[in-house]
Amino acid sequence: MFRQLRKTLVAALITTVIAGQAAPVFADAADSLPDIGTTAASTLSIAQENQMGDFYIRQLRASAPLINDPLLNQYINQLGMRLVNHANSVRTPFFFHLINNDEINAFAFFGGHVVLHSALFRYADNESQLASVMAHEISHVTQRHLARAMEDQKRSAPLTWVGALGSILLAMANPQAGMAALTGTLAGTRQGMISFTQQNEQEADRIGIQVLQRAGFDPQAMPTFLDKLLDQARYSSRPPEILLTHPLPENRLADTRNRANQMRPVVVQSSEDFYMAKVRVLGMYNAGKNQLTSDLLDELAKGNLRQQRAAQYGRALLAMQNNNHAQARQLLQPLLSAQPDNPWYLDLSTDIDLGQKKARDAIARLRAAKALRNNPVLQINLANACLQGDQPGSAVTLLNRYTFNYPDDTNGWDLLAQAQAALNNRDQELAARAELLALQGQLDQAITTLSSASSLVKTGSLQQQRYDARIDQLRRLQQRFRQYQKS
């Protein structure tokens, strides 16, 4: 498996301005609640929201501890799209991200971007509870709550919303300064923002619970998860971060519980992927704290077959994390033999092979996988195995196709740069690194790097024309983004 963990940032500030947390419901009617007196269109068009979302996610990639784990990203995006497919009023594409943060929280922002904190996997007892958080965030996006908040601020205090956006960016570079700037910017209109946010939360609850049930999850999971958060707040000097950024008055919880009680009772089993993802997050992430305890693994081992497999996978994962590759292989082998095409097992087996300097074994196993052609997780694993196994040419072939199909995955560009460097293709190495810089919002550096690549190839060649055309594209993107940058 190939994973890459980015640097650190306090994403909680973004959550404060970009409200969101979870909820669920089923109903016959479409998701068409009152518009709270505005269409939001006079402030932002959908195209502008998408553009701003593109800008902000690039900033997050550069500064936030996003978890660039192909397996986990595939899981949360598949789960998220299952929910989106049952939502109404979807005007934007959706993208789901996981951030390495041990505080329970989630937030959504422009362009259909939904960010989950890794701590959600620790506190969610089942897949329906995790899905309830995501359904709530999806509803914030479909109801355009951030655009509404900006329009409300624009009417009551012109330029306030502009300052708020600038403060978000400042917080990415300097959390303390960003928080101070945001506090000053919103001080005069704070009460109105709080009231508006509470309305947003209730609307997202009501629509989210409909999405949750239509997608086949248990609607009772939403009030159950909120109850769990309140219990934690009662016995703690500091409430969970999610309750600080997502107000939870008594009437909101009561309304959600009442709606869930009116829905058809349903028994929903969590998928095996949920348990695998939970084990993986607890064993490898959560801000560097290994929370995959023997007690948890023992509890899973007493459960159904899906949970038993996750427990065995978790033990193999911990052994690999402790560099005990022989034990990890011994624990994993029965699982892999029973399900030779399971991407969770193939990914871990690849890590074990590479840890034991057996890259050729990993390459052979991955090439034999039936799902290789359609599974990007296996494709990126194979490219990494080829690179580690001194086959950079094969890695380049795989990665050229991979980066074409998944141009927003930083893992692909990072590996491609390494593979081109191994082949001494300096211009193509620089071009790949430029794409990585652009995805992280560092457009000046990306343009400079691409200019260096262009200078290394024959003047007037097709390759130089390609590099120069890409430079022009990045300059136009830079011009569009300039309005969102803090002066």
From TrEMBL:
A cellular-component GO term for this protein: membrane
Cell location: Periplasm
Any single biological process term in GO: proteolysis involved in protein catabolic process
Pfam families noted in UniProt: Peptidase_M48, TPR_19
Binding residues annotated for Zn(2+), in chain numbering: 136, 140, 201
Keywords, sorted A to Z: Hydrolase, Metal-binding, Metalloprotease, Periplasm, Protease, Signal, TPR repeat, Zinc
Catalytic residues of the enzyme: 137, 205
This enzyme's EC code(s): 3.4.-.-
Gene3D superfamilies recorded: Metalloproteases ('zincins'), catalytic domain, Tetratricopeptide repeat domain
Cofactor stoichiometry and binding remark: Binds 1 zinc ion per subunit.
Primary location class: periplasm
Signal peptide (UniProt feature, chain positions): 1-22
Function per UniProt: Functions as both a chaperone and a metalloprotease. Maintains the integrity of the outer membrane by promoting either the assembly or the elimination of outer membrane proteins, depending on their folding state.
Family membership: Belongs to the peptidase M48 family. BepA subfamily.
Protein known as: Beta-barrel assembly-enhancing protease
Organism: Tenebrionibacter intestinalis
Lineage, uppermost ranks: Bacteria, Pseudomonadati, Pseudomonadota, Gammaproteobacteria, Enterobacterales
The encoding gene: bepA
